[in-house]
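Working notes for the structural subgroup meeting. M.R. asked for a predicted model of this chain before we commit to crystallization trials. I am recording the input and output together here so anyone reviewing the notebook later can reproduce the run.

Input as submitted:
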Amino acid sequence: MRDHEGYARLGERVAARRMECGAERGISLSELKSGVAPCFNCGEATDPDAVHIVYMVRFPQLSARKVGITSTEVRHDRIASHLARGGIPLEQHEVPNREAARAVEDLVLCAVREFPSGCTARDFPQGGFTETWSDDGPDTDLGNVIGKLLNLNV
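Returned structure, recorded in C-alpha cell form:
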C-alpha cells in the first residue's frame, strides 16, 4: 500500500506500509522486481537465517564510503551492482545470518554518523545512499567490528 500521491519513477523509493503486518518501509518498483524483500518483517525474499555478507565499498567520485549487507544468493549481489557504478571494494565478510549482518551495519553507521556523505537517492538508484558517509570520516575495519560483536556474545 503506497503512501505516495501520483506516479513514481521505477527507481524512486516511496513510503509503503505492508498490509499484512503494518510495517513501514521505503521501497521502489525496481527493488521489488529485482527480488528485494517487500517487508523485512513478514515477506522475506531471502532466508534470514542463511549466511549473509557485510561489505564496504568506496566511491571516489562521490568522496564517500558505504557499508551494506547482501545475501549470498547471486540474484541479490548488491556488491556487483555497486562496482558497476564505480565503487571500489574495500572489505567483505560472511556472517551467520541477516540479524548479525544488520548488527554490524548498525554499529558501523553509528560510528560514522557525524560524517554525512551528502549522497542522495540519485547517486544510488539501486538503493543504499543512507548507509554512506564521507571519506573524511574515520577508517572502519569490518573485521574488527565483527570481532567486537562476537566477544559481546560469548
